[in-house]
Design brief:
heterodimer; A: about 700 residues; alpha/beta; Helix Hairpins; two-stranded antiparallel sheet; B: about 90 residues; alpha+beta; about 35% strand; disordered N terminus; binds magnesium ion; Fe2_transport_prot_B_C (chain A)
Chain lengths: ~700, ~90
């Protein structure tokens, strides 16, 4: 026996392959209730009854001869890798559609196990399936599962282990077509056997013949040097089309569906009300997809999401803030005065403490994202928005990567793989960085809280809407400048509404919390230290006036209120000049002219520059600069006095739109397979951000 | 190229909520799209109904093979059907 035995989970998109994969292997791969969440192969090993199994989660697809790029990974895997055992995952509630793929898998001749997943839904709908009959008709063991509740997992593993230790049946099942098709298949098969004598088993040559008649480009290309064969196939196809007024692929598809239909008529029984099945979905869709209410509801849901993220998050944020304050004070008192003290208190504690307070907001945001994608609402949202997005040259399904972008732009760029058309995908990839990722959220919460305290939640919501608008406008522009045409069909299967499991929602939140803490203790910590050193050095500054002497003179004067103010002004002027002449100040002042039209000070420029690494660093930079300069004053208060509201808006807009962070630039380069596009993304977003921020500061300046 | 009788052809985009349709054929130059539709159950003889339309009447959700399929009207117009009154 081979070890490990490769077991591929193959099924339609959204059939539950990944849920099953997680249940089988204990992995935590992403699961959501819309098709094509999984876009690449994932493998894990498990041992069951002494058999080592290498289980592979294959991205879902509908047909093995599909030429759609989003289904290619799955198709290519079946053609190229030839797993030892195929576990064909079927959504048992949608057997009429999913048995199509099964009929194709039968023809590969590979050992198969048929899994009827989502059995809980089927039972609830009062449907009974005769598994024994299915097993004999499909020529494979049939296992019923509910991946969600981890039911039937052991039975499945048993079946896999049993199959791994037996030799497959000599004559696997064969599907019969009508006489015209069978005649054509046989003739092509004979031709193939002549071309490749002894190489091809009968099963294999029949499979190849069917694929070629179906018009599978991949297989045809492989045989393209056999001109006669290709000619013969074309001849057969023409003859068949003449006979049936339908292309060969259509004939084969009809036959496959007819087989499924006939089988299900025998093997499936409806007990009770047949409409009971997805009744809840229908009721919910009457509401969420209502022609007048649908779009306002979508907006309302998003508003509630961001408002709650802000307002509910504020409560635990206050606790963390209090904790940070207490510990900062403690460290402040215990450490002896000096450079190390300043580094820890004004660098590390200010930077890390100033950022970690946003943890609750991030976790709440991810809670909502888990609900949106886990219930199936996201698929509805893309349906509702398709028409609007179409106007901007985008595709409804682009909404899925865009909403994913609210979490993080990196998976958003990867999620553009759901888009079939290559050019449309590139455009989606280039607009993805405009999506307001959770790294930018701290900036908006800080600024909105400081400048627009009463309507902070709505301002945060507005920033998200602006990110959508910016993405749409960019799409229009990119559609003009990128050559080619983007005609992509909107084809989307809408899954029934499902309740996400508590476990998956909690996992989502836990994951985001871990990710954020890792970032704070990683890039933010290092960033804060670096920024502190940059603003502290060099130390041998020649000041414009002799502060030491002037301050000493002032101190010697008799005590009076005037003396206090004068001293304070002097000290703050000294601190400011020190900062301006530090490395950080000097480099920020060097680029400051660029930002002057937007009304940004050199401190803002410094924050922007550091934000290139990761946008959370923006807040950390402010925290460090102001901690050193102003001491323990509340960051919000300091900020409020540092700029007018119009500039604050311009700054928020600039932060929202300017260059993607390093990880996003890297992933764009990788996914677009071109560093040129990654570079373009940086240059384009900088220009766009600058122009929009300028407009905002001008317009805001006249109104506020 | 205009064919005689083409004007009379009924497509999926003409289907009304109170009607039931039966797929006749997919008429398109786009082979990938055709293949995709075929693998989703859009094959001749399949029964189809209109479930609902998006706010602006496009795209629409159809019900076939026991599931819901969202399609734009531009695509639906390439799918020829026969209308049977429910
Ligand atoms: N009720 C029920 N829901 C399930 C079951 N298995 C999976 N689901 C849900 O079905 C949806 C799709 O599950 P996934 O595991 O992401 O499906 P997939 O086949 O990996 O889908 P893609 O990777 O997106 O193509 C999720 O909402 C799951 O929670 C099940 O046995 N019963
Ligand atoms: Mg998956």
């Amino acid at each position: 026996m081979k070890s490990p035995v490769t077991v591929a989970l193959v099924g339609n998109p959204n059939a539950g392959s990944t849920s099953l994969f997680n249940a089988l292997t204990g992995a935590q791969s992403a699961v959501a209730n819309y098709p094509r969440v999984t876009t690449s192969l994932t493998a894990r090993e498990v041992t069951h009854r002494g058999v080592t199994l290498r289980i592979v989660d294959v991205p879902g697809f509908f047909s093995t001869s599909s030429q759609s790029p989003e289904e290619k990974v799955g198709c290519d895997y079946i053609h190229g890798e030839e797993p030892d055992i195929i576990v064909n995952v079927l959504d048992a509630g949608h057997l009429d559609r999913s048995l199509f793929l099964t009929t194709q898998l039968i023809e590969t001749g590979l050992p198969r196990i048929t899994v009827l997943n989502m059995m809980d839904e089927v039972r609830r709908a009062g449907i009974r399936i005769d598994t024994a009959l299915l097993a004999s008709a499909l020529g494979s063991p049939v296992v019923e599962t509910c991946a969600l509740k981890k039911e039937g997992i052991d039975a499945l593993l048993d079946a896999v282990a049993a199959m791994a230790s037996t030799t497959p049946a000599a004559a696997p099942l064969r599907l019969h077509y009508d006489s015209h098709l069978e005649g054509a298949i046989e003739r092509v098969q004979q031709h193939l056997s002549k071309l490749h004598p002894q190489e091809l088993s009968p099963v294999r040559s029949r499979w190849l013949a069917i694929k070629m008649l179906e018009g599978d480009d991949e297989v045809l290309r492989h045989e393209s040097n056999h001109v006669e064969l290709v000619e013969e196939i074309k001849g057969e196809q023409t003859a068949l089309a003449h006979e049936h007024d339908e292309d060969t692929a259509g004939l084969l598809a009809s036959a496959r569906f007819a087989f499924a239909n006939g089988l299900l008529r025998e093997a499936r029984q409806q007990e009770g009300d047949p409409t009971a099945g997805f009744k809840l979905t229908r009721i919910l869709d009457d509401f969420f997809l209502n022609r007048t209410l649908g779009l306002p509801l979508l907006l309302g849901i998003l508003w509630v999401m961001f408002e709650t993220t802000f307002s509910l998050g504020a409560i635990p944020t206050d606790w963390i803030k209090a904790g940070v304050e207490v510990s900062t004070e403690l460290v402040d008192k215990t450490l002896p005065e000096g450079m190390f003290h300043d580094l820890v208190v004004n660098g590390v504690m200010a930077g890390v403490g100033g950022t970690i307070v946003f943890l609750p907001n991030i976790v709440i945001l991810f809670f909502f994202m888990a609900i949106l994608s886990g219930t199936g609402y996201l698929a509805r949202a893309s349906f509702l928005m398709d028409r609007v997005m179409h106007h901007f040259g985008l595709h409804g399904t682009t909404l899925i990567p865009m909403v994913a972008g609210f979490g993080c732009n990196v998976p958003a760029v990867m999620a553009t793989r759901v888009i079939t058309n290559k050019r449309a995908r590139l455009i989606a990839m280039l607009i993805a960085p405009f999506m307001n990722c959770s790294a930018r959220l701290p900036v908006f919460i800080l600024f909105a809280g400081a400048f627009f305290t009463d309507i902070a939640g709505t301002v945060v919501f507005a920033m998200y809407m602006l990110s959508l608008v910016a993405a749409m406008l960019s799409a229009v522009l990119l559609n003009r400048i990128i050559p080619g045409s983007g005609g992509d069909a909107f084809v989307m299967e809408l899954p029934p509404y499902r309740l996400p499991t508590l476990h998956s929602v909690l996992h989502h939140m836990w994951d985001s919390a871990q990710g954020f803490v890792a970032k704070v203790t990683g890039v933010i910590l290092v960033g804060s230290i670096v920024i502190w050193f940059l603003q502290e050095f060099p130390r041998d500054i020649t000041y414009s006036q002799d502060f030491e002497t002037v301050i000493a003179e002032q101190t010697a004067l008799p005590d009076s209120p005037e003396k206090e103010t004068a001293l304070k002004t002097l000290k703050s002027a000294q601190a400011q000049e020190k900062l301006e002449k530090s490395y950080l100040g000097r480099s920020a002042i060097a680029v400051a002219p660029l930002f002057e039209p937007l009304g940004f000070s050199w401190r803002d420029s410094a924050a922007i520059m550091t934000g290139f690494v990761a946008k959370e660093v923006v807040v950390a930079t402010y925290a460090v600069i102001y901690a050193q300069e102003k001491g323990s004053e509340e960051l919000t208060e300091t900020l409020k006095n540092a700029m007018p509201p119009a500039t604050a808006i311009a700054f928020m807009i600039f932060t929202l739109l300017y260059a993607p962070c390093l990880s996003t630039i890297a992933i764009i380069g990788k996914e677009a397979q071109s560093w040129r596009w990654a570079g373009f993304s940086v240059a384009y977003s900088l220009t766009f951000a600058w122009l929009l921020a300028l407009a905002a500061s001008r317009i805001g300046g006249t109104f506020l | 190229m205009k064919q005689y009788g083409q004007i009379d052809k009924v497509t999926l985009a003409d289907l009304r909520p109170d009607q039931q349709g039966e797929i006749v054929k997919i008429e398109t130059e786009d082979g990938v799209f055709k293949r995709r539709m075929q693998s989703l159950g859009v094959v001749s003889g399949a029964a189809v109904t209109l479930d609902r339309s998006a706010p602006l009447g496009d795209p629409r959700i159809y019900s076939l093979m026991g599931y819901s399929l969202g399609l734009r009207n531009a695509e639906a117009r390439q799918i020829h059907i026969r209308i049977c009154i429910k």
